[in-house]
Amino acid sequence: MAKRISDPGGRNPPQSWESGPGPAGREVELLPGLYAWCWGESGPAVLAVHGWRGRPRQFLPLAGALLGHGYRTVALDLPGHGRSAGRYTPQTLGRLIAEVANLLGPVQGVVGHSYGGAVLGPALLQGLVTPRIVLVASPAHMSRVPLARARDLAPPPRVLAAFARILDEQAGRPAQELDLIAVAPACGLPGLIVHDHDDEVVPFAEAQELAALWPQARLIATRGLGHRDVLADPAVIAAVAGFIAGPGP
User: Fold this and answer.
1) In the chain, which ranges are continuous DSSP H helix?
2) Is residue 174 included in any domain, yes or no?
3) Of the candidate ranges 23-27, 66-70, 233-237, the one whose mean pLDDT is the lowest
4) CATH number for the domain including 78?
5) Total domains present in the chain
6) What pLDDT, in 10s, does the model give residues 1-30?
7) How far is CA 35 from each of CA 58, 154, 191, 218, 237, rounded to the nearest angstrom?
């Protein structure tokens, strides 16, 4: 059951804007077996983390805007998705993100989409250093996601209870302590939360709940963009780039 839930099993179909007009990029190997797509050759770095079954080129529109502000974008290709090897838990991925930020650093900001935003919670607990954070369509309660997927498989109650214990063991603590709702409000960093009312994957209510508890964060609510097209909306791109380049909320 754990393998079925933790294996992305490929990638979502690409969106048209992933190969649309924009700056040329290149693939780099940041660490042995860990790849990323980079736009820009100089300037402070912005680290971007795609979501479950996502890909680095989803950040192409944002990368173009950030180049205009003098920043290069480094978008990770998460393990188990594309070229990057291996599997991960939220805890190990958080450690990896913190390591990459330190390698690139100082990074001007970290942008996460969906699951890629959710794992910034464990990354902060693992020592991620950045002056600002952007969360796009990210679940505030990541620990609930694998349990919900497990329930869809209709396992016996004892199996579900054992799976919950495994999640806590992998986290090294109660898994909910890694959630953004627990970590972000206490991080003391300025944040930008972007979420669409019509998100079909992560309910908009999760963004509202997180924004209400995080005093340094600002919520941008959109309509009609869903879970993925929000990454390419011109108004969203301008707001995210301006937030990263500016002093924060």
Assistant:
1) 2-6, 60-68, 90-104, 115-118, 120-125, 144-152, 157-171, 180-183, 204-213, 234-245
2) no
3) 23-27
4) 3.40.50.1820
5) 1
6) 445 445 666 677 888 888 878 888 999 999
7) 15, 36, 26, 31, 24
